[in-house]
């Protein structure tokens, strides 16, 4: 028997755990049993993959699956002039589905996820970790030690390293990246308005086909009622009915695939020749400008592709790929081919072509399933919009709004009341205003193609900086993607006056809101950075800070992760007293999808121990929510107590001959220890003030020697400080918040004055208070106002 001792990392981050592992000499049958167990595990993993692929149908593919309801009508709104045009249009649909959803998104873009998170902001966060692209530089070196902060390293003079240096060296490129991401995000929001409108209206349109005597106004009214109910129940969440989504969508795909096979067999199997790309060339040669304009309708066959990436969250990429290749892709090809076969014999029924092609015996059951599938598709798009707004909010690109978790099991299921009602009003307005699938389709196509172009540009940087692909591969991807998407974009531009202006107007409004809010946030951060207080000035005040230190704890909230904020000097110069313990609290969102509870807090000491001034940085990812958690304060103090104990332990181990220099104004020389939730400590550039900057402390504090440290043993110092902290906490905690107001200077240009003094001020007035976002109790809140001119 051989005995080995190994060390494993404690999953809680508390250090190493000793494991005793006894390895026995096993006979041959034991080896065979191990092989059998390994085979069983692989089999179980395959079963799990199938289960996840099934569940992904209801979340990811609803929007893409309902496109057959309206594609052919939007492609031929004026009727089919030549049956051969159907073959050319079908060939375009087949190769569009192959090139964009299958090759680009399912096989390539889905792999560019940020630890399983998809969407425009997720790619942006991924890029921000590999290059310093964020316009608000609030990251610290310690943030890179997070378990979710993964990034690649570059070889010097490599193509990736040169690209990284070029991006970081130009502020214009950082701003361009931000604008690009905001444009893509605004188009996704526009798609979140248009997809429910066209999906539900097309599905309800089956009533008109089944009963021609029912007017189109009745169809629009029913669609509006369905949309109103859909948006009204969002606050309940989808946790209780979400299990129905996958069966509904799977049934939908099987139905449209089966109907497609029936129509190909029953009407015209010659449509299968559309798999030859030759018919695409013939289609454009024959129709010329009309064929080119019809691309706007064909574009709708790939709507929902961006939602596929945005809704990636809970499913591994392999399950997404399996569901698409086995179920979604073949069923969509059969559905479009079946409709084309039907229209070859019934070219006058292009309006409502899907419903006309359904056999009479199953018409109404299919109508019910189609309506349910349209609702599921709409829900997926609405959820993707909520998720995107939450990410934008965390990165400082959206006004403060209330975010509600609707599920205790799934953190990604959120509800944003203000955004929900805005989406509902706009969606109903589009549905009731246009009353026509064609114009809504033109609008939806414009939004989708612009989002795809933005994703392509971001993917180019991902391939260079993250995957470090050879430049030839990057060039091939770029040329193929832009060739297809720019072709569609040119066709969509032709239909701006036919409904394509809707997403442009919506996106311009949301872009203005997001960019101006980010501009104001950035200016506020820059003001705080440039006006932070010198540590020499703080230490020169002595342990009492030149004031009366009253019992209690003051939590001073600031956006700065370094330095002493101006709000603190403003506070102590206008009030005669300050709390015995002061903690600067910075709630910081990082370009990672989540931060574990064990790594949430970073504690630092500011100045000597007698000052009792600390800094706490609470770190969150863009998927995390600083919700109303009464344990937040408790966790903060628990981390603070652990820090004090470790600090005392390190002092006890340190050399008594250490030399201490006068502190510099830089924050790197403010603290002597650094602590995070993994109980890890690292010695920082330690500096404490000299004799001139230290004043004798009052009786509650231990007596100190001439360099500011106690003559008592370190364990006694620890007990005294811990007792002091607990007594102050029991006395009471006050939350001090800065209310920074920015105004444009008089010499500013007209656009800046409008943006800052009116738009930003209006947004700040109607959005939630910062105290509400931080969940600060109002009974212990103290606001300190400041006005700055930019």
UniProtKB/TrEMBL annotation:
It comes from Parasponia andersonii (Sponia andersonii). It holds the Pfam family K_trans_C. NCBIfam families: kup. GO terms for cellular component: plasma membrane. Residues 1-20 are annotated as: Disordered. It is found in: Cell membrane; Membrane. It is a multi-pass membrane protein. Potassium transporter. This is Potassium transporter. Residues 52-537 form the K+ potassium transporter integral membrane domain. Residues 551-787 form the K+ potassium transporter C-terminal domain. GO terms for molecular function: potassium ion transmembrane transporter activity. The chain crosses the membrane at residues 44-66, 86-107, 178-207, 213-231, 243-265, 322-342, 362-389, 410-434, 446-466, 473-494, 500-517, 537-557, 577-595. Keywords: Ion transport, Membrane, Potassium, Potassium transport, Transmembrane, Transmembrane helix, Transport. The gene is PanPOT10. InterPro entries: K+_transporter, K_trans_C, K_trans_N. Belongs to the HAK/KUP transporter (TC 2.A.72.3) family. The lineage of its organism: Eukaryota, Viridiplantae, Streptophyta, Embryophyta, Tracheophyta.
